[in-house]
Specification:
The chain is α+β, with helices and mostly antiparallel strands. It contains 6 helices and 13 strands. Helix 2 packs across helix 4. The two termini are about 35 Å apart.
Length: about 280
């Protein structure tokens, strides 16, 4: 895969996520080993076993009653994410990554008690043209990344969407997710919940997208959308390796998970839900 050079040469080189996502989405599901798990109301959910990895890959596809742009905005507007997503304890852009449409993102997800919260630091890439929108992300690490002692750091190997307009009020969505929430919950349960809850999650996303424009019009900066307006990206802080450390893909240097260890157990830490440590 070609690399993305970060502005000023201060962030290192990381792989092109959109290229990686496109390869996964353009192939027929069955040729890649996906098995159909759900097929109702025009929505399909597929699951694929990955060699030497207990966490399965999931794919969702279908034509949805929301415009491609409204879905794209709903997915990328962090302020709106905290408004509509009941799991979002915090959703924020940390840095921009130079001349490409790419940022470093932080997401802290609330989990039902007594399970510990999850958080993630990811690199996000996106692109859009007359054919539609595409966004992809994967987990990254760097020395100055935020940390939360009461949340388990999840890992996204690859995740993303393509959104292609069908009409002004409909679009075709394709979604890939291969991630590991880590912790001590059995992977069999995680894999089952991921596919069984996917339809509900998609329809919640559709409902949020249908209300995005009304919500945005009421905000103090209704035209602030740096993911659509590249000139607004300059207002975001630039990632600088000399200040923040080397940027690296988590999957390539992921430390082993010791199930049952204090930092990775789901049930032995008080105070779950705290904000990231300063």
């Amino acid at each position: 895969m070609p690399g993305v050079e970060i502005e000023g040469g201060d962030g290192g080189q990381v792989h092109g996520l959109i290229d990686e996502l496109t390869i996964l989405l353009k192939e027929d599901e069955r040729s890649l080993g996906f098995k159909l798990k759900y097929n109702k109301k025009g929505l399909q959910v597929w699951s694929r076993a990955i060699k030497n990895d207990p966490s399965k890959m999931m794919k969702v596809s279908g034509v949805l009653p929301a415009s491609a742009e409204s879905l794209f905005n709903t997915l990328l507007d962090n302020a709106y994410r905290e408004h509509w997503d009941p799991s979002a304890r915090k959703s924020a852009t940390l840095f921009r990554l130079g001349p490409v449409n790419s940022t470093i993102e932080y997401y802290h997800a609330k989990m039902p008690s007594p399970v510990r919260d999850r958080d993630m630091v990811t690199r996000l890439e996106w692109s859009h043209n007359e054919e539609g929108f595409i966004l992809a992300q994967k987990s990254v690490e760097f020395d100055a990344a935020p940390a939360c002692k009461t949340a388990i750091r999840g890992v996204i190997m690859i995740s993303g969407y393509t959104l292609n307009p069908v009409s002004d009020t409909e679009c075709r969505l394709s979604y890939i997710n291969h991630s590991d929430p880590r912790g001590s919950l059995p992977k069999m349960i995680i894999n089952h919940l991921s596919t069984s809850l996917a339809p509900k999650t998609v329809w919640e996303l559709v409902k949020a997208a249908q209300g995005y424009n009304r919500w945005k019009e009421r905000q103090s900066q209704p035209n602030l959308q740096p993911w659509l307006n590249f000139e607004q990206m300059s207002a975001l802080p630039l990632f600088d390796r000399s200040q923040h450390g080397e940027l690296r893909d988590t999957v390539e240097g992921q430390r082993p998970l010791v199930v049952g260890s204090p930092e990775d157990s789901d049930f032995d830490v008080d105070g779950a839900g705290s904000e990231p440590d300063d």
